[in-house]
Amino acid sequence: MTAIADRFSRRGLLVAGAASAALAACGQGSGSTGKGVNLAFQKNGVMLVAQTRGSLVEPLKAAGITPLNWVEFPSGPPLLEAMAVGSVDLGLTGDTPPIFAQVANAPIKYVAQVRLSGKAGGIITPKGSSLQSLKDLKGKKLCFTRGSSAHNSAVIALQSVGLTLADVEAVNLGPADAAAAFAQGGIDAWVIWDPYYSLAIRDQGARVLSGLDQLGGGASFLLANAKFAETRPEDLKALLSAIAKEGEWCAANTDAVAEISAKASGLELELLKDTMKRTDFKVEPLTDDVLAAQQATVDRFTQLGIIPKKISINDAAWRGWTG
């Protein structure tokens, strides 16, 4: 098992304990009981907006689903670790964390998707860098968050010019630490998404070697605990329909979404108003082409030895929601 998959397995109980403590503070223990539901969110995207606006409460109450308990996570991997042990029922992550979760035999299901244009991120290099193209990354320090969607983007970008991760010095940093390293000249290039992407371009004059849209975009996924999907399919359908409507609201009210995100993140409102115009919010049922692209990522990771075994994305796909 890779270090990432092993870490996923070992950290599961610790993360679950933290999530359970948060739920206990809401009056709900680990995992959903009765008709309640435990939802995960991060400081971005449609789930943050739904949590902040409280917009899911009434439609789900009408469907008999109450209470709604929200638990915040810093990123996708710990969110899925908590989901794997039943501490949360549903959450949204990028494309790469669920692959490592499935490799670690986590009981999770893909249940919906958000297609990504790729316009909200890219591979950047400092203003004074000599790098002019992706080919110039050979032998250089390329930074991305291991196990995140940026990991996959790094692999795709390198392969597009005949390189692999073995041809670069991979630097594994979370966004905040990577931002500091980038500003100080400690890394040669950075695979990153908004708002860090736009901040580096605006404030530091960072140059774009490739936008993520040039690498094919991608997708984010709503994922559910497998037991929740299997035992409460009607509740899951109601949840996804309510979240899809929230996604429509986000797309039509990007300035309001920027205000919510600014309060949650502490970032500048004007910057976020710009980035939200490039952010994708449409929640839709799983489609064959998106799942095929996710399987292609699995095959790529298997071939390169990033994951220790090949898995089937279709085996973890739940098709019960049709929109």
Note down, in words, how this protein is organized:
By secondary structure, the chain is of the alpha/beta class. It has 2 domains: 3-117 and 218-316, Periplasmic binding protein-like II (D-Maltodextrin-Binding Protein, domain 2); 121-215, Periplasmic binding protein-like II (D-Maltodextrin-Binding Protein, domain 2, 3-Layer(aba) Sandwich). Helix content is 45%, strand content 17%. It has helices at residues 3-25, 45-53, 57-62, 76-84, 97-103, 149-159, 175-183, 196-204, 226-231, 233-252, 254-265, 269-276, 288-303; strands at 37-41, 68-72, 90-93, 108-116, 121-125, 141-144, 169-172, 189-193, 207-211, 218-225. Strand 6 (141-144), helix 6 (149-159) and strand 7 form a beta-alpha-beta unit. Helix 2 crosses helix 10 and helix 2 (45-53) packs across helix 11 (254-265). The radius of gyration is 19 Å and the shape is globular. Mean pLDDT is 89; it is low at 9-33.
- Helical content class: 40-55%
Structural class: alpha/beta
Q: What oligomerization state is this entry in?
A: single chain
Question: Which fold name fills CATH's third level, the topology of the largest domain?
Answer: D-Maltodextrin-Binding Protein, domain 2
How many individual domains?
Answer: 2
Order of helices and strands: HEHHEHEHEEEHEHEHEEHHHHH
Q: What topology, given as strand order, has the largest sheet? A: 7-6-8-5-9
> What is the straight-line distance between the termini?
37 Å
Provide a count of the helices: 13
Question: CATH H-level name of the largest domain... which superfamily?
Answer: Periplasmic binding protein-like II
Rounded radius of gyration (Å): 19 Å
